[in-house]
Amino acid sequence: MGSLEDREDLEEETNSAFTWEVQANNRAYNRQFKEKVFLCWQRRKYKRNVIHTAKYNIFSFLPLNLYEQFHRTSNLYFLLIIILQGVPEISTLPWFTLFAPLVCLLIIRATRDLVDDIGRHMSDRIINNRPCQVLMGKSFLWRKWKNLCVGDVVCLHKDSIVPADLVLLASTEPSSLCYVETADIDGETNLKFRQALPITHHELTSIKKMAAFQGKVVCEEPNSRMHHFVGCLEWKGKKHPLDSGNILLRGCRVRNTDTCYGLVIYAGFDTKIMKNCGKIHLKRTKLDFLMNRLVVLIFLSLVLISGALTLGFWFKVREFKAKHHYVSAKHVRSVATETFFNFWGFLILLSVMVPMAMFIMAEFIYLGNSIFINWDVHMYYEPQDMPAKARSTSLNDQLGQVEYVFSDKTGTLTQNVMAFRKCCISGVVYGPEKEAPCKEDPYLWNKFADRKFLFRNAELLQAVQANEDQRVREFWRLLAICHTVMVQEKNNQLLYQAASPDEEALVTAARNFGYVFLARTQDSITVMELGEVRVYQVLAMMDFNSVRKRMSVLVRTPEGSIHLYTKGADTVIYERLGKKGMTEWTTEAALASFAEQTLRTLCLAYKEVDKDVYEAWHQRHQEASILLQNRAHALHQVYEEMEQNLQLLGATAIEDRLQDGVCDTIRCLKQGNIKVWVLTGDKQETAVNIGFACQLLSENMIILEEKEIMRILEAYWESNNNLKGDKKDHRRSQLLPQVKMALVINGEFLDQLLLSLRKEPRALAQKVTLDTEESWQGPGEGRMDFLQARRLSLLWRTLGTQRKTPGLASEDKDSSSHESPEARREQAFVELASQCQAVICCRVTPKQKALIVALVKKYQNVVTLAIGDGANDVNMIKTADIGVGLAGQEGMQAVQNSDYVLAQFCFLKRLLLVHGRWSYVRVCKFLRYFIYKTLASTMAQIWFAFYSGFTAQPLYEGWFLAFFNLLYSTLPVLYIGLFEQVSICGSCRLPPCRRSCLCPTSSSWGTRVGWGLSPLGPKSRPPRRLSLQDVSAERSLELPELYVAGQKDELFNCWVFLQAVAHGMATSLVNFFVTLWATWDSAGPVSFSDYQSFSVVVALSGLVSITTEVILIIKYWTVLSVLSIFFSLCFYTVMTWATQSSWLFTISPKTFPFQYADLNVLSQPPVLLVILLNVSVSTLPVLAFRVIYQALKKPRPKEEEEEAAPSEEIITVEPMAFIHRESRARRSSYAFSHREGYADLITQGTILRRSPGVNSDMLVDHTMPSDELSTSTKESPWCPRKMSFLGRKKHQHWGQVPSAEVQPASEASSSTTVDRQPFSQENQSSPTESSALTLNRQSGSFQEKLLKRQEGSLSYEQWPHSPPESLPPTKERPPSLQEKPLSPRESQVTAEN
Asked: This protein's superkingdom (predicted)?
């Protein structure tokens, strides 16, 4: 293990060194760098910007594809047999009988791989040919992405995609800011800002200066760390530090920035996104691996059987030559030589026991099931005209065995759309009205209204227009003033530019209700209030950070009064209220109702500040803002002084829309024992919010975070209970019984935890550190939640009991010596995560997503599926056993690298539960039946060898062997593989494969005949008084539990294979020896004891037996099933008549020796009786055994059924004394939509001023050439929100009342009267005292429910969170250019110092 750590440290030190040098505008300098490839062979160190994600090219396709195909054991086996058949001395069958099918099989698979790879080539060509502007000489010219080189200076415009990793040099925005959307990299659609160095911002102000720029960037080697970069710019004898805030990564999209300029430092496969993409892996199914092992087993068995038969030939031929010495002259070879050749002859003769036709037919079955997926109209998405598509045809059966689904969040689970849904003002809830679509727009009176705003509430609009209620007025005024949105006017329309969509939704809501945000300057903000323009002087902006969870603005009104407006998370706002009356209680109930509806809540409050108080506070604020040390802490304390004794105005509720059907899909997948993990690059709070919205998380779950996970894993390590052993499954079942858990972790934690899976050195800053401001907390933020502490204490108690389990320590000590500590830690983590109902991984890079998938595959040995829609999901999609790409708004990279393409996440339910399960059932039945029918016919060759002197003489006619798998038994097998469905018992609703149904009618005869030609064809008629019912697509969705059979490999495994072998062997024994018994000591014209007649009877008996078996096992009877059996028998009749005709015998007697053999035999009635006897003896015992076994098999006990289902129980805890404020599990949104420092950019004027020295020649013409491909796509806003990480039961949570219990505004009056008695615990205990409180807006019954729910309220801990990286853009600046303010980065450095 030490060597591994040393190697990682060495690689880290190597990559951390500044060995990457790039000089601007100097391709000759950059081309001189070489790197060693092999021996003396060197190549250019810096790659071009061209990418190739395809697997093959013109020269490598044939050898590489053949190499991959011959990795299959079956192909190697067939190749060996073909080689042996080419030797005349040992060949018993013509060489082309196997060569032609093998070539056909290889061509089919190669064509499939070629079609998939052509799609990747087309995608690469589209990306490589995207246009961009490159500085060539003294002007910017349009060039293709593939022509970019390291050191080039490129010009990008609004909505452009960044073609390579760039160092931002300058932009037309103030202070050379550049706003980017990184949805295709980390899944976040809220804007982030990047900023150029001050030196390049001031110096590079014209194209001429850009062309003369000769700066050199010295930085780290290319790596996959998406959020980390270290380097410096050397220019004019000085070095200027660079970090990730100066870098534009490939795949980002420029937003709200007219023009920006960058220097290419990493190109092509050296870019960070390409370093995270991974390689294309050959994906094979579990059944494929199993068949490979079975082929090896069959081959070894054939070798043993051939050896045994050859040994019999050795003794037989010596005895024969001794008795018949007169024939010795004809046998010139020695006995040993003839025995050697006979061995290979037997091996060739019995090689048909591994039928190549099975593999060829399987390809057509895979293709047919893929076509059914493509044709399924229920997975067609009409808005995008996008049907489902199976890009891979070899993984269909594995769709029925998935146990883990790894999903992206942004664009996969969500629509990236924010909508203002509800608000609560003074305790009155205003929701959307149910109105007719043709109703007139209520906002026509407002010329500034956004016509796309869908919220309608006539009573709220009337209250706003009346302008009588001060709280209503202040509510909308706060939304119009307290924000960080920038505004610009374009085509006489106001355009808001926000860092997060929810912030924009709030300001737009205020705009439509008459409070229009018009403009802002460094120290003022202009708002039009119901037609009156008012200018507010901004006295202070108290910025957001992860500890404050709120934002405040201190303004002076036109009348001269000073007001403080605050909005933020409900937990922090309620702690700072001056008084708490019925308005606060009803608002809290409304917040709980909003949370139950998975809406993102936000609390609004304000207060009026005395001038004397402000003057004293302003002096302290000035002193704190100029501190050189602990400035942020000091400012926080000053802000805390001002943000006290607030008056609550109300709350807002924003809907972060999920895709249609996401909740139902996740519910069905969980019922089908499929675990869903969310892997996203977005912030933790946003991902957890979506987890609650899509019901992946619930309020009664224990949500484990990093500290709890480390404590659990430490307990694992101490007891060594996570290691392999005989009692591993028992230990897993005993871990945390009756506890519903969920894991929420981030990328840094995974980076620390999972060291041995990492394929690159660790980041420079390796330890997981909290924010600099999280070491101290505000009032009440450090209290531990009682419920969480109680649950965790029971959790440790459970682990302590587990550690004392006898017999585990010794067993684990032995295994611990063979595993590294990292491997044990990883295995412990996977064991813990696998027992959680949900796992959410946040802030993970694309490579980390792939490593998580690989980790689960490594330790759980399960089938995994990854689904995503962006380039950041490509590596995960490639690594998983099955990759599903969504044709979303983040491009087509995920689609081009996926195995299946869907338009919506909800279609995944049908893909797995219907098509996946059907494909698995069909392929398993196909394999079992094919093995049975092959052995039932070919094993008669072995029995015949005992009566042919062990001479390897074929029993059957050559043409019967040729057409047996081609025509005589093909159609029923194809029907099973394409159209078969499993039945369930109509009484007990259990699938027969469980073998636990007691219903006597649950036999294979309980089938029906209809017209269900395919999953997409006409629906078959309903069953008539039949117990077994076919599981239709709708029924499969209603019974997700049926999916478990595929996860447990119940339908095809080694035991099923042995059953098929035994069944086939028994059938061959009956057909051969019963026929032999019937012909024993017989002679005369009616005898069929001659070789040809005997061969015909055995062959026909075998054919009828396997046809009878297929009739018994088909559960889904249609016209096609009847026709397949009928035509199979017809083919036998026609082809036998043709191959045994006299004219063919005349042409070639050796090729067609069986002249009229069938006709002669079948014309004798005793032969028909023998065939009937063979079929009866081989079929009736098996049928009787199946019926008796089902009748005697005990049904599964209810206890096992309940144990198999996910437990809904949780550890119950004693409720503690009532603590009012910290009782909810609601999720506030605002505090996680911004990045600290944005308010400073506004107050300092950094983003409000035109960049100095931006000349007209810097505004490069960005008209894209008409012949180039346009790459602009539709912008999709998205923003995270907050949640409380502590789960609890709903009956213990008074605030979560149904929305129906919160009276709508239409039923409420305009005033509220409250008895001013405190809400003490004593008051709550008495129902009579509770009923004394009266509300004009709400009924008494609601008050009683409200107060009863307060009794179960509990407190919870305030969890700190890291601030997101987002900053909204602005285009509006004053024309004056004065002294340069500090940049955000300089301000941050100064604050830290």
From this structure: Eukaryota
- Give the distance, in angstroms, between the CA of residue 1218 and the centroid of all CA atoms in the same chain: 41
788's tokens:
């969480």
Sheet holding 188-195, edge to edge: 188-195, 177-182, 253-255
Q: Which of 516-530, 809-823, 1008-1022 is least confident? A: 1008-1022
> Are residues 1128 and 1109 in contact, defined by beta-carbon separation less than 8 angstroms?
no
What Å distances lie between residue 638 and 175, 531, 614, 632, 921, CA to CA? 29, 36, 12, 10, 68
Q: Is the pLDDT of residue 788 over 70?
A: no
β-sheet with 562-568: strand ranges across:
428-430, 414-425, 647-658, 600-609, 562-568, 550-556, 532-542, 524-529, 515-520
CA-CA distance, 629 to 632, in Å (whole number)? 8
For the stretch 800-859, pLDDT in tens is 444 333 333 333 444 444 566 777 778 888 888 888 888 999 888 888 888 899 889 988
Tell me whether residue 408 is one of the annotated catalytic residues. yes
Q: CA–CA separation, 489 vs 496, rounded Å?
A: 9
CB within 8 Å of 361: residues ≥ 6 apart: 926, 930, 970, 973, 974, 977
Q: pLDDT at position 1085, please?
A: 61
| Cβ count near 102 (within 10 Å) | 18
Q: What is the DSSP string of 315-326?
A: HHHHHHHHH-GG
For residue 181, what is the enclosing H or E element? strand 177-182
Question: What are the structure tokens assigned to 65, written together?
Answer: 């594809």
Q: Let me know: does 713 contact 825? Beta carbons within 8 Å.
A: yes
Nearest to 367 by CA among 341, 343, 397, 339: 397
- The Cβ of residue 32 has, within 10 Å, a number of other Cβ atoms equal to 10
- What is the phi/psi pair of residue 1175, to 5°? -65, -40
Output DSSP code: residue 964: I
Asked if 1282 and 601 touch (Cβ cutoff 8 Å), the reply is no
> What's the rounded Cα separation, in Å, for the pair 661 and 413?
9
Strand partners, 424: 429, 651
Catalytic residue among 165, 186, 376, 408: 408
Closest to 956 measured CA to CA, from 1069, 1073, 1098: 1098
Q: What is the distance between the alpha carbons of residues 47 and 38, in angstroms, rounded to a whole number?
A: 17
CA-CA distance, 1269 to 1271, in Å (whole number)? 6
Query: How high is the pLDDT of residue 1235?
Result: 54
- Give the pair of three-digit tokens for residue 716: 């694992």
Please give the average per-residue pLDDT across 724-730, as a whole number. 44
> For residue 432, how many other CB atoms are within 10 A of its CB?
13
Residue 186 is predicted with a pLDDT of 67
SS (H, E, C) 68-115: HHCCCHHHHHHHHHHHHHCCCCCCCCCCHHHHHHHHHHHHHHHHHHHH
Name which of 749, 485, 719 is nearest 1367 in CA terms.
485
The answer on pLDDT for 741 being more than 80 is: yes
Gap between the Cα atoms of 250 and 270, Å rounded:
10
Residue 889 sits at φ, ψ, to 5 deg, of -95, 0
Cβ–Cβ under 8 Å, residues 140 and 118 = no
Looking at the chain, the number of H-run helices and the number of E-run strands are 49, 39
